[in-house]
Amino acid sequence: MKEYTLLANWKSWGTSSQIRQWTTAFLSKYRSQPNINVILLPSLLHVGLMTDLLRDVEGVAIGAQELSSFSGENCSGEVTIDLLQEYCHYYLIGHSFQRKHRDSDGAKVVRQGALISEYRGTPILCASNTEEIPDGYQGLSVFEPIDAISDGSGYGETAEIDDVTAACVRFRAKTGNKVFYGGSVNEHTITQLLKSGADGFLVGGASRDPERFIKIFALTAQERVVG
């Protein structure tokens, strides 16, 4: 049975009240599965809250979206890995929003990756092609084609399955590690995407609704592909 990872990227969604409601609804239906790991990626503001709410829940981990490319106690206004490591082992970096607005040349991703490795965390690097993956990077990666990203609803034009399969081959060849797919992953596209050979999926807008995320989880659990 192939092992999958489902990542819920909430971006900047969620007040404390919404997150508590989401967690209650999620836990009411969630049952761990031996072949699925769940990584929840709330805003940095709510990483601590999510850790407290889901502490010791089997098969569920909390990760951080982004982090400072600096470390230490004197980085005013920054959320550093020194602070996050109490809560997180996984760190999503290089998301298309960050690349577009704050890291057009990819230099920030290189610094972040080095810091995460130094602190023995696991980076999860988003990239639309292998050119955006730094040479020597050996962490997890997400194939994130720009034209497949939804408007936040989780509904959009997902990439063609053959394109996802080919990208996974290229990404694995460069990183030597697992490759996930992100781009309009939802309860309607997941069954087809499971045929792509991806090791997991970055779920955006659809993950903000616990009912939809549980549906994606259940459909993934039903998959019986031998890895």
Shape by Cα distribution: globular
The helix count comes to 8
Q: Give the rounded overall mean pLDDT.
A: 92
CATH topology: TIM Barrel
Strand content: 15-25%
Unreliably modeled segments = none
Q: Determine and state the CATH class.
A: Alpha Beta
Spatially, the strands of the biggest sheet line up as 1-2-3-4-5-6-7-8
- The percent range for helix content is 25-40%
Largest sheet: 8 strands, parallel, barrel
Which structural class matches the secondary elements? alpha/beta
Series of H and E elements: EHEHEHEHHEEHEHEH
- Rounded Rg: 16 Å
Domains, number:
1
- For the record, the CATH architecture stands as Alpha-Beta Barrel
Condensed summary:
The protein is built from 8 helices and 8 strands.
What does this structure look like?
The protein has helices at 16-29, 47-53, 81-84, 96-101, 107-118, 161-175, 190-193, 210-222; strands at residues 4-9, 36-41, 60-65, 90-93, 122-127, 140-143, 179-182, 200-203. Strands 1-2-3-4-5-6-7-8 form an eight-stranded parallel beta barrel, surrounded by four helices. The mean pLDDT is 92. The chain has a single domain (29-207), classed as Aldolase class I (TIM Barrel), CATH 3.20.20. By secondary structure, it is α/β, with parallel strands linked by helices. 33% of the residues lie in helices and 18% in strands. Strand 3 (60-65), helix 3 and strand 4 (90-93) form a beta-alpha-beta unit. It contains eight helices and eight strands. Helix 1 (16-29) runs parallel beside helix 8 (210-222).
